[in-house]
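Morning. Coffee machine broken again, so started the prediction first thing and wrote up yesterday's gels while waiting. Chain of 189 residues, entered below exactly as on the submission form.
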Amino acid sequence: MPFTQRSEETRNAILAAARRRFADDGYERATIRAIAADAGIDPSMVMRYYGSKEGLFAAAVDVVLGLPDLRGLPAGRRGEVLVRHFLTLWEGDRASGVLTVLLRSAVTNEAAAERMRTIFATQVGAVIGPAADDGPTRAALIASQLLGVALCRYVLRLPEIAALDADALVASVAPTVQHYLGDPLDSAG
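Came back before lunch.
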């Protein structure tokens, strides 16, 4: 097997082990030794590839939300499309757990919280567009809804939220996100 292929396989094994360990133990309790053991390698290899626990964490939670371009949609459907996309991301993420790792870690680790803030400010902010003077506030309000749903459905697994099918959940959350996308923020909606 060529060196670069082995190197890539090692990197992937480390990232998979790190995601599982960070998800199970949280950032603070996860150790380089435990991650290396899970990946079946020496801890020095983790340090060689990622430099530090912080570097490994940053690589393990590198998330691109791939949010849809809402500009071509009818204004009244934008909230629905955004919420449905977000739920699809979380449902598809169950295999790798990157979003779960990031959300769980953000609660107890400032670096993870900053990463989450950056992801949502830049990626959701880009969907809202630069024309909105209150874009950062709108992005934060949208994030509060989407991350609240994710926390309750995928991390805490509140039975009433976890039991809802995606269509019912979208129908319940989309109007609030729709309000944050375009209605005046000082109105009752």
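The chain has a mean pLDDT of 87. Going to sketch it on the whiteboard this afternoon.
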